[in-house]
Hints:
By secondary structure, the protein is an alpha+beta fold. The protein has four domains: about 1-95, Phosphorylase Kinase, domain 1 (2-Layer Sandwich); about 100-290, Transferase(Phosphotransferase), domain 1 (Orthogonal Bundle); about 325-370, no CATH class; about 375-465, Immunoglobulin-like. About 30% of the residues lie in helices and about 25% in strands. It has helices at about 50-55, 55-70, 105-110, 115-135, 185-190, 195-210, 220-230, 240-250, 260-265, 280-295, 325-350, 360; strands at about 10-15, 15-25, 30-40, 45-50, 80-85, 90-95, 100, 135-140, 145-150, 155, 165, 380-390, 390-400, 400-410, 415-420, 425-435, 440-445, 450-455, 460-465. The strands form five sheets. It has a six-stranded antiparallel beta sheet. Helix 4 packs antiparallel against helix 6 and helix 6 (about 195-210) packs antiparallel against helix 8 (about 240-250). The longest helix has 29 residues, at about 325-350.
Amino acid sequence: MRPLEPDDPRSVETMGRRYRVLARIGSGGMGVVYLGRSAAGRTVAIKMVHPEFAADHDFRARFEREAKVARSVGGGFTAAVIDADPGAEVPWLVTEFLPSVSLRDAVHTSGPLAADAVWALAAGVAEALVSIHGAGVVHRDLKPANVLLTADGPRVIDFGIARAVDSSSISRPGEQAGSPGFMSPEQVAGVTAGPSGDIFSFGSTLAFACTGREPFGEGPWHAKMLRIQSEPPRLDGIADDGLRSLIESCMELDPERRPTARRLVENLSGRGEGGVPLPSAVVAEIDRRRTEAENPPPAPPPQPAPAPQPVPPPSGPDLRRRGPVLGAAGAAVLLAAVVLPVAGWYAFRGDGGASAAPASTASAAPASPSASPTSTATRAEITFSIEGDGRIGSLTYMVNGKSTKLEKVKLPWRKTVPMPEWPPRISWKLTYRAPAGGASHTVAVDGNVIIAGRGSAGSDMAAEGLF
């Protein structure tokens, strides 16, 4: 937990409900998580999205829908969503604060859990899935990082990519959501992922808790996804035969053969009584985080706004006689000097470095050196690839809101876009209709494949994400 930064909010409010912001818990690709307190003194976690997403109408609509979905999930083994304001200038969500350690961090620091702890963990997470699926929701990203170990048992968190079961947006052909290594085979294939997909991820999570390693091995993302579709999970090292049998049933390749969450709860009845026996180091860390939340680090005093700098008067002959005219001309030149670097930077960012500022703007004044693409620091490269035979009627790729549509594209096709250093979060999307012979696509960042999918003839393919 860290002190607030000068630009961090000190409170959020909606419909008369106000939450004080006390400290930073952490940040990720979608936003920042703060420690907060309600007016009644309840300790909460406040999740605020990054400002660049707030201007995206599609993102706001999705945020509102998913906040509503998350609030519909109850039960004792999930983190309750208390409040939300999707319409705020910067949308935010409030959940209960849980002094905890994620299963991922606990295993990384203290090693695999003992068998009795895994049985208790399984009982709690299975009960959470009953609540989630009972609310008509599919989590779609169940993994060790999204299972918190608390003094009162496990909690399943993060419905950031959850979908209502009856929603048409649950999944689209070619779109994957989840984390490689814990995704179900149907997620990897890009087909509709239902509650049984969460059961597969449940089994993968338990295997990690037992062994300390992912059940499909380490390596690049695309290698893990290929193994999920073609190889059985690695369950060697699970000495408890009952646990191994449970995990194998959850990780059946055929979704119809996996147990339901309700059946799991019935089979695990009594296993979770008394909570999850945790390693002493994990218990100590949970206690430390509870104490830290009760005494958050003080925020620095607000910094005064910098004083405006005086603009020097224009220089040159006959300024007093022709001051008003030259003043307007000076303003035009100053405006061009400000606009030109920005226009050149955005053109470079949008199409990967091929174009410059529009000619009508470029003629107003010479661009400064900072406007040149060659001086822009490169953060990463994102590469879109489609393999197959024949032609695609049209395809669209989007990076940070800038879409490019191509017609009559001959396969194979590949496009690499260099990404500038700012902003630190990159959104992207690729859509196309597969040709008669079918096609496969990959999206890679700095050569590491993050998404892979294949479409049959005539199928509409779509993949999107953030990094």
